[in-house]
Structures are given as structure tokens and as C-alpha cells.
Amino acid sequence: MLKIIFFDIELALDAYHYGNHAPFRASSEMLQLVMDNVSEGVVILNQSGEITGANRAAARIFGYAAKELHGRHIQNLIPVPFGTQDPDSHNPDAGTFFREVETVRKDGRLITVEIFLKKYADDNLDGHVGFVRDTTDRHNTENQLQQYRCIVEQTADTVIITDPDGVIVYVNPAFERTTGYRATEVIGKTAAVVKSGLHDDAYYAHLWNTIKSGRVFRDTLINRRKNGQLYYEDKTITPIHAETGMLVQYVSTGKDITKRIQSEQRLNFLADHDPLTGLLNRSAFDLRLHEAVTRVNRENRKLAIVCLNLDRFKMLNNALKCDQVDIVLRQVASRIDDICHAGDIVARIGGDEFVILSESLRRRQDVLLFLDEILDVFNYPFPVNEEKIHLSVSIGVCFSTPDTEETAQLLHQAEAAMRLAKKHGGSQYQFCNHEIQKPAGQQLKLETELRRALEQGEFRLLYQPQVNIHTRTLVGVEALLRWQHPRRGLLRPTDFISVLEETGLIVPVGKWVIEEACWQNRAWQTQGLPELNMAINISAAQVMRAGLISHVIQVLDQTGHAPHRLHLELTESVMMQDSRQVADVMWSLNQYQVRLVIDDFGTGYASIGYLKQYPFSIVKLDRSFIHDIDVNDQNAAIAISIIDLAHRLGMQVIAEGVETDGQLSFLEHQGCDLIQGYLVGRPLPAEEIATLTQRKF
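Given the sequence above, the corresponding C-alpha cells read:
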């Protein structure tokens, strides 16, 4: 094309040279007409390199009016080696010259141009014809494409590009790392090379229908690596269309979320299961029991609750190492689970307590045979390393009735029967009867005493230190409730908390705890102690009862307690209440900068959803994962997953029940933020906390 344009301009130049005065004007006009109809920029240079003619396109490229270009030297516009020797390119004096260079327009904007100079000479005319093309857009596009390619090559997500038939034309390095396939192994094949076989034909039909209709497909796929391992991938497949609307390619991007899925699956499993034995935990069992009672009552049937407790377990626990005790408990769980009937539900609801829910044991004779079978499996020793451990078990049994409504009472009755069996020497079973049920008068008496305790100020608070694991300094305390009973001495919450909750007394007692703890923290600051976080346990009843938010705000105002220093600990059972009410309370407290802590995480109904749904700042790792965390790979893996998950969600982690240097070292190595336990301090009276603020733990 340039040759044709140059030929036309040569003709015009010849006419210009050979014509007389009148034809000269005509030839000059013809030359300008030819140049102005050329889409490329054209400049005519004399022998010195000065511009004697230029077309509109050239003026437009350089940002000047055409007249402004006349008389300018070409080097003022384009950095070309005019009249010099340039070893790296053709010299214009040699006849032709071509190069792509950067230059600056009149308005100061940097542009990229291609310049082609052709020498023109005869007896009367000597100079150059120059052709200029603005390549800025093309240059920028090429640079941009190169940047996009670098991004695709370096992204951690897999990228697959296929033709409209699904044949792979490109994969990035992340695909190679994720799948184990090299690009040369998959280009020319379809993405079926990584199919796991776990999605049915209907699934893939839906996928193809989606993208063929021009829509984007998004889902989690289970694929298979070259080595056969399965992996989970957040997949997005986007159809790419040309300007004409024709489908030209599919672009598939994917993020390997295998570790996240495995962590979620593990945590969801732990929400319902005991981490040591794999049996259901107490919370999950309570839910199954409620569902079963509702079902058998509707069908006019009954069910049996069988409660088992290991005899003399405390002595065994003291005699063996932690890992040996765990081996025994796992064997016990396995033997109990093996003898149960299909459909029976087995749970571990305490350290040495197990429970069986059975809808198949309808006749007393069937129950007796089953109980004898349980006792029989305990006649065989439990091997632990080189030792053989002999155990016995006490069993209590309770049956539901058609009018059973309080499912918790069923378990209490079975436990009462179990305690009677233990009282009679153990290694036997007892059935529930009215003589062994707790008299209503005793419950009423305890309730009366608790009301008096609140009125007469018999409740006390002890404070257990919470230490920053990295600085080894005291940063907070947890307020723990005690009852100074006038006759029985100092009682722990396990002796009375259930009655507080059943009677609703937990609400006024909870209010007292918040007030007392905040005033005490303020008193410490008045004494010159550094600011400490104050952690307080909040029950489900307090959250569900109106007035918690206003009471907390009132106490903060009255005491001058910093809101962000108040940490309210909520167990997972709180989240099982009315989700809207719970959410309103928690988000309101968060708005006032009160920090929320999810307590005993991983032991009940906990799921990833709670951490995302509610504004928690801190996750409290339950002590059941801590006691052998430095020797138990399973508990260690659970703790690592929870710590990593919490940090990814922007939360801190506090581990409770830390008692050994080995546990501390492990938690510090895994990045745990805070610790609480006998290693750094038992629950202490308020006056003893001051001495801890100056020491290193």
C-alpha cells in the first residue's frame, strides 16, 4: 500500500517539477490533493530535512495545523537520525529508513509512531518523502495484552480457555500446579481430563445448557488431580463472544478450596460429635432425643434411654497418662457402639459417661438381654500398650411415656438410676422408679436458697487471668461466679447453675455479675493498674430477655468502663435460640463496641455459619482440645484448623484449660493469641489480681 501511495506522490512531484508556472500551481494542488486523500501521515522534506509539505493526517498525528509544520525540521517532530550515521538502522541518506519511535505531540502527549522515509532525487529536486503512522493505540493494546498475560500466568487461580466445542487451547501455570497435568498434556483435549466422576450426567447437562445459552456458570466442582486425588474448586465458566455476537471461547477460572472444605467438614463434624470417640456429643444427643420423643409419642410408642458410667474412672484417670486414658475411652466407645442395634443412637455426654437412645427395645425382656450384653463386653480387658485394663460399668435405664414432654427429664431419670447402680457397688444396672427421682421439695428448697443468696449478697466473683501468649503479660480476666453458701461453703456453678436457668434466676444473677465485674475493673484502674479486659459469661436466657442491651449500656455509663474492654462470652447454645432476636442483641452490642466471644467453640452446634453470621471478635478454644494437644495429633489438627479459620476471619483466639508448658509452646507456635488456665493462674479473689499485672508469665 505504501508503495502505491509513494508512486502516486512521485507522479505528483514529477508534474510539480516539470510544469511551467500555471501547471506548477496545478501540479502543487494535485500533490496536496493526493496527500490529503492518503490515510497515513505524509511529509515532504527538502535535502536539509525541513518539511516543505504535509497532509492533514500528518498534522492530525502531531497535533499541529498543516501550515505550522512547514519549515520545521523533521527531527523536531520525530527523533530520527537524519543526516547522521546510525549503525542500528537504515540511514535516510542511504535511500530508505523505517523505525517505530516515541515522540511528543504539540499538546505534550506522548505517542508512538512508525516513520518510513524514502529518498527522492533527480537533477532538479532532492529530498525525502516520509510516511507516518500513529501506532499508539496498537502499542498500548499490545502492552495491555502483555500485562493481562502476565496476570493470568501469575494468578493463583486456575485458568482454562477452550474453543466453543470445549477443546482446551490454553491453561495457565496455576492449572498445572493444581492438577499435576502439564499444559502439553491437556491442550487439544477437553476439561473432562479432570472429571472426578462424582457429578452425574444431569449436572454436566445443566452446566453446558447454562454456558451455551450465554450465561455464566458458577458452582463448586469436585475434580480429580493427575495423581488421583480429589480436590474442590470454586468454578466460574464464562462464554466469550465476538463483536458480531458469535461465541468464540469459554474462559474457566477456578480456586482450589480443598483445605477450606475439609476444615469446614471437620468443624461441622465436631459440632455434633465428640472429637475423641467420634460419637455424638451432648448437644447433638439432646436434639436427637427431642426428635425421637416427638416421633414415638405421635406413633403411640416408647423408647429407652440407657445411661452408662465407668466405675472408678477417677482412679484410672490418675493412674494412667492422658493418651492412655484416651485409648481406653475410644475402646469403650467402640465396644458400646458395636453391640447397639441398627437405628440406635450412641453419644458420649461426659468424660466417662455414655448414653444410648433406642427405639427398638420395646419389651422388658429385650432390654434385659441388651443390658447383660453390655455388662459382658466389659468382662474383657482393654489393652493399652503392654498393659491390660479391667473396667466395669454402672447402667441406668428409663423408658418414655406417651405424655413425656420434658426430654431432659428422661435423661436425668436414667442418670439417677445409674447413680443408684453405682451406689450399690457398680457393675450392674438399675431401672428408673419414683423412689430414686429427685423430690420436688428439694428443688424448691434450692430455689428458695438461691433467691435468698441474691438478696443477701452471698454470690462472689473470682477472676481467672488471661495472658497474651506473645508478650507473656496479663491483658484480662474472666469473671467466674461462686456461691458462698452459709452451710455448704463456697460452691461452684455446677452445683446450682441449672436451677438458676430453670427458674429464670439466671437473669437477675447475670445482671449482678455484669455490674460487680465492671465496678471491680474500674476499681483496679483507680488503683493505678493497667486497663484489663473483663470477660463475662452470658446465658441464653439473658440474651432472649428484653433489657440486656440497655442494662449493659447503663452499667458502662455508671462505671466508666471502656466498652471495648468488656468481653461477653456466649456459648453455642445461645445461637440456637431465636436467630433474629440473638442477631439483634449481638449486633447492637457490637455497635456499642462491646466485644463478643464465642465460648467452647467446637464442642456443640458450632458451624462456620455462626462466625460469619454474628459479629464475634474472639473465638475461645475449648479445653477438651487442649489437655493433650501436644501429644494428640487429632486434637492438634482441630486446634490448628480453628486458629487458622479464626485468623482468616479477622478474629483472635483464646485457649482455655492451658496447664503445661508443652501446651503453651504448641499454641504459641500455631499463632494462638491468648491463653487461660492453671499454668498462668487459678481463679483468684479481686485483691490478688493486682500482683499479677507486673509479672511475666
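The radius of gyration is 41 Å. Try to locate this feature in the C-alpha cell string yourself.
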